[in-house]
Fold this protein.
Amino acid sequence: MKSSYIVQAVIKQWDKSRLSEMDFLERAAMPDRYPVVSPKIVDMGRQRLLLDRHGGDEYRKIDCSRFDDQSLICDRLLLNSNDGSAVYLGTPNQNCPPQLLGKPADGDWLQCRYNWRYRMHRDGWFYWLYEEVILNVALTEVLKETIFIDSPPSSVFEDFELGR
């Protein structure tokens, strides 16, 4: 049986009016993982990816695409099906080298946390929308609904260069 990547995206969003200590504590109390109930299947040729998305709004998409015959890019992660590795790419303007997060073994999973901001225009207003993105990543042959709930991640990577 062919292994599939499971990527669970948890997106916490806020605007400039939600920067108080109480707002920060509310966001910190939100879950960083959920059961995988009905993931979107993304067929990438030889590799299959199950994308499970929580939070965010209708404008924020987690883009996943094929990089080459053996690799997938999912937001800021490069997932290599050849060796099972997950690599954090950062943003184009960070000028930092890619960082190997690890190789999730069957039953283990990795967590990658980072933040970002972007300019929004809605209802005639321009504003910054801030977000914390949490990507939980597993590589497994069998989808288990509680894969991210049953155990803590084997490793956690954080990139909060923009601040929280």
